């Protein structure tokens, strides 16, 4: 994906996902957000509790830039609740950002 612009301070852009804020239909959302210090980051949200709630995660070290291509891959393994978000830059041999973790006992919602 290539951002034509980055969000204003304290704002976010929804980039892609299966997400409806109202009606308990939250499953997955990839977003770009601008933090208080001015940096712009990728983040994602995972819905749970049949889509009624969501956990939000923001990458801590990759500052997004307008006009630059980013290649994004996300995987989720329901059996152990693990996730992995990878971001590659223009030349992309190895990820420029990797975020991994585990959601504990919550199951991802797929409404």
Question: Secondary-structure blueprint of this entry?
Answer:
Layout: E1 12-20, E2 25-34, E3 40-48, E4 53-58, E5 71-77, E6 82-88, E7 97-102
Antiparallel strand pairs: 1-2, 2-3, 3-4, 5-6, 6-7
Protein architecture, described:
- The chain is mainly β and 111 residues long.
- The protein has one domain.
- Helices cover 0% and strands 49% of the residues.
- The protein contains no helices and seven strands.
- The chain has strands at residues 12-20, 25-34, 40-48, 53-58, 71-77, 82-88, 97-102.
- It has a four-stranded antiparallel beta sheet with strand order 1-2-3-4, with no helix packed on it. It has a three-stranded antiparallel beta sheet with strand order 5-6-7, with no helix packed on it.
- A hairpin with an 8-residue loop joins strand 6 (82-88) and strand 7.
- The model has no long low-confidence stretch (mean pLDDT 79).
Quick overview:
This protein is mainly β.
